[in-house]
From TrEMBL, chain A:
It is found in: Cell membrane. PROSITE patterns: ABC_TM1. Keywords: Cell membrane, Membrane, Sugar transport, Transmembrane, Transmembrane helix, Transport. Gene3D superfamilies: MetI-like. Belongs to the binding-protein-dependent transport system permease family. MalFG subfamily. Its main location: membrane. It is a multi-pass membrane protein. Part of the ABC transporter complex MalEFGK involved in maltose/maltodextrin import. Probably responsible for the translocation of the substrate across the membrane. The chain crosses the membrane at residues 30-50, 88-111, 146-172, 202-229, 250-270, 302-324, 357-379, 411-434. One of its GO terms (molecular function) is ABC-type maltose transporter activity. Residues 211-433 form the ABC transmembrane type-1 domain. The lineage of its organism: Bacteria, Bacillati, Bacillota, Clostridia, Eubacteriales. GO terms for cellular component: maltose transport complex. This is Maltose/maltodextrin transport system permease protein.
UniProtKB/TrEMBL annotation, chain B:
The keyword DNA-binding does not apply. This is Maltose transport system permease protein MalG. InterPro entries: BP-dep_ABC_trans_perm, MetI-like, MetI-like_sf. Keywords: Cell membrane, Membrane, Sugar transport, Transmembrane, Transmembrane helix, Transport. The lineage of its organism: Bacteria, Bacillati, Bacillota, Clostridia, Eubacteriales. It comes from Caproicibacter fermentans.
Length: 443, 275
């Protein structure tokens, strides 16, 4: 048998043994074998495999006697068997984590086999043995990026990716108020939740109504702030204004103040019963009864847009002022010499240039507003309530509806379905936005 | 003459908008000095000014503790995030390796996933690791969450620094890491400032994570939660105290923003262009 095959087969059974015996790379072989020992060690120490093989457990169940990995995977597939004892969501989270670690070990194992083949082949071809140290040095040079990124990747995997996997998987379970662990078990239900969203009229209706308002809100919010920012930037930039920086520093304040504080402030300012704005308007005799700023469906929507205008226009104004400052005045002089009127210069040259320079910002803002949870939650909390909608108020956007479904109604399964839909929507729009940019092309 | 009329209207508009911007701010500032407790008593122009609400904030609530928690979280988050972001972005910008492109696109997709549902999973993770109710443990989530978007941003910036400079350093015998520390980092001060300041400001007003992972127990909560709880009741009987607390925190953050606005504006512009 050739060395490369015996080395491969050895390493298939005992990790690193091919490298150790055939390739004479002792340190590398021992390290790889240590990984195998660690894998089996974790599994057998956390479980009762020794007792099982010793015949002490006649009725072996993975649920009770399995180790970290086997129990984790069992939990992920079954989501528990005994209500009150098995906590389905914990099982699911632990299952995902166990599976992720197992994947890492699988990666090491596969690499170990491939490397055993290569080491054996190198020995056959060159009849020379590479020491572990020399190999390690070469590996460090070649794999440097992976070594540095590994711990960071691990962190991102656990804190960012694992929760996302969990929430995607939730969409395929019946995890809701009727099946709350630990008292009840959660079960896999396949595509039932997706079908429910389509087939039950009140759900699909609510979804469409909320989606429509979300889209309207995102567009109105983005473009109202954009054009107000543009208007203020142009006015500040006009020749007759002397104290440009004075106005600029006042206008920047709403951007600088933390959003949550501004929003809570406006919620109180516009309070229908005790709000000082209503009180003042009453005192001045401008109105005869209090305006339901936040408790009437239409008025509340207008209020939200106005508040968003207050908070959002400074960002666009500052950005556009920056673009204006960098523009070449020769461009406009040339147009003037060619006989273009001021309005023509603005509409045909200045505006298109400004729009082009800020288009990515507008799109990013659009996506941000689409998921603008804070605005709705802190300002109206989705209210006023609307009984014809399923757990959503008149001003609820998708993301705040999802929040209510999870935190108030415990309907994790349907919220997860909505979450996936939002993700697809936002992902497609952003991908389309990015496709042409240099950032992607230069990669 | 026409010019003068024009100028008058331009200034009129500018002043109107300035009032539109300033009046709500003025109102909340004045409310914090208002002697009454509730929203109803805080008219647009109070009759008398007092520091009573600020005194109450320190006597009746745990405001200093919340402030300390938020401050520690923010400082730690700024430091940890900058280290993680800079190392990752440096590797991604300077080394070509398998999986780099798909990894970057994956990162970008991750940053778009709405995260409410992740909360159950994060809660379970924190429970398993015994990190619930530790304010500083929030830094793990904030800094890991900062990686996807900011790595894109910083990578774009680092791509703009000529690679010949690194290569010259390698030839002179610099190792990878010392090149990173001595060449790359000093040249990326603007983007580091942006990351540090924006990551410092983020946790102050984050509401979701602390409400999920910290108990409502007064000693472990943050400013955002403490303030929100003051006015979440129906009666609004602590409104002026909320105003005082909000001012105390909004003023430093606003000043910070204005001091670093150059970097923040650059950062937002770069972010929009890079994705």
């Amino acid at each position: 048998m050739t060395k490369k095959f015996s080395s491969t087969i050895l390493s298939c059974l005992f990790w690193g043994s091919g490298q150790f015996f055939i390739g004479r790379q002792k340190a590398k072989g021992i390290l790889l074998f240590a990984a195998q020992v660690l894998l089996f060690g974790i599994e057998s120490v956390s479980g009762y495999w020794f007792n099982f093989f010793a015949g002490q457990i006649p009725d072996f169940q993975v649920r009770l006697y399995g180790g970290y990995f086997s129990r984790g995977i069992w939990g992920l597939f079954t989501l528990g068997a005994v209500p009150g004892e098995d906590h389905s969501t914990y099982l699911m989270v632990n299952g995902i984590m166990a599976l992720m670690i197992l994947m890492i070990f699988l990666g090491v194992y596969i690499w170990n086999i491939v490397d055993a083949y290569r080491t054996g082949k190198a020995v056959e071809d060159t009849h020379a043995y590479i020491s572990s140290r020399a190999f390690g040095k070469k590996l460090y040079q070649k794999m440097f990026p992976y070594f540095v990124l590994a711990p960071i990747l691990f962190l991102v995997l656990y804190v960012v990716v694992m929760p996302i996997i969990f929430s995607v998987l939730t969409a395929f379970t019946n995890y809701n108020a009727d099946h709350l662990p630990p008292a009840h078990l959660v079960k896999w239900v396949g595509l039932d939740n997706f079908l429910r969203l389509i087939s039950i009229p009140i759900w699909s209706q609510t979804f469409l109504i909320v989606l429509a308002w979300t889209v309207i809100w995102a567009f109105l919010a983005t473009f109202s702030t954009y054009f107000m920012g543009l208007f203020q930037a142009l006015l500040i930039n006009s020749d007759c204004v002397k104290h440009k920086s004075f106005f600029r520093s006042i206008y920047i304040l709403p951007w600088a103040i933390p959003g949550m504080i501004s929003l809570l402030m406006f919620r109180n300012l516009f309070n229908g019963q005790f709000g000082p704005l209503n009180q003042m308007l009453l005192d001045c005799g401008l109105i005869h009864s209090r305006i339901p700023f936040l408790s009437d469906a239409f008025t509340a929507k207008v209020t939200i847009i106005v508040v968003n205008l207050w908070i959002g226009f400074p960002m666009f104004m500052v950005m556009l002022l920056g673009v204006l400052a960098n523009q070449d005045p020769a461009l406009y002089e040339a147009a003037q010499i060619d006989g273009a009127s001021k309005l023509q210069i603005f509409r045909r040259i200045k505006l298109p240039l400004l729009m082009k320079a800020t288009a990515p910002l507008v799109l990013m803002n659009l996506v941000g507003n689409f998921n603008g949870f804070g605005f709705i939650y802190f300002l109206t909390n989705g209210g006023p309530n609307n009984s014809s909608l399923q757990f959503a108020g008149d001003t609820d956007i998708l993301i705040s509806w999802i929040y209510k479904l999870t935190l108030n109604q415990n309907m994790y399964n349907l919220a997860a379905v909505l979450n996936i839909l939002i993700f697809i929507l936002v992902g497609v729009v952003s991908y389309w936005n990015l496709k042409g940019t240099t950032a992607i092309k230069e990669m | 003459m026409k010019k003068k009329i024009n100028s008058f209207f331009v200034h009129l508009e500018l002043i109107m908008v300035a009032l539109f911007v300033l009046i709500p701010i003025l109102w909340i500032v004045l409310s914090s000095f208002n002697p009454g407790d509730s929203l109803a008593s805080s008219s647009l122009i109070p009759k008398k000014l007092t520091l009573y609400n600020y005194a109450r904030l320190f006597k009746e609530t745990n405001y200093p503790v919340w402030f300390k928690n938020s401050f520690l979280i923010s400082t730690m988050n700024a430091a940890v995030s900058v280290v993680l972001i800079m190392i990752t972005a440096w590797i991604v910008s300077r080394f070509h390796f398998k999986g780099r492109r798909s990894g970057l696109i994956g990162l970008l997709l991750l940053s778009m996933f709405p995260n409410f549902l992740s909360m159950t999973a994060l809660y379970t993770l924190y429970l398993t690791l015994g990190l619930l109710n530790h304010p500083l443990a929030l830094v793990i989530i904030y800094s890991a969450g900062a990686i996807p978007y900011n790595v894109w941003l910083v990578k774009g910036y680092l791509d703009g620094i000529s690679k010949e400079i690194d290569e010259a350093a390698y030839i002179d015998g610099c190792s990878y890491f010392s090149t990173f520390l001595k060449i790359i980092l000093p040249m990326s001060k603007p983007i580091i400032t942006y990351c540090a300041v924006s990551q410092f400001m983020l946790p102050w007003m984050d509401f979701i994570m602390p409400s999920l992972l910290l108990s409502t127990d007064n000693d472990n909560t943050t400013v955002a939660i403490g303030l929100y709880n003051m006015i979440s009741g129906k009666e609004n009987d602590k409104f002026t105290m909320f105003a005082a607390g909000a001012i105390l925190i909004a003023v430093p953050i606003t000043i910070l923003f204005i001091l670093f606005q150059k970097y923040l504006v650059q950062g937002v512009a770069a972010g929009a262009n890079k994705g």
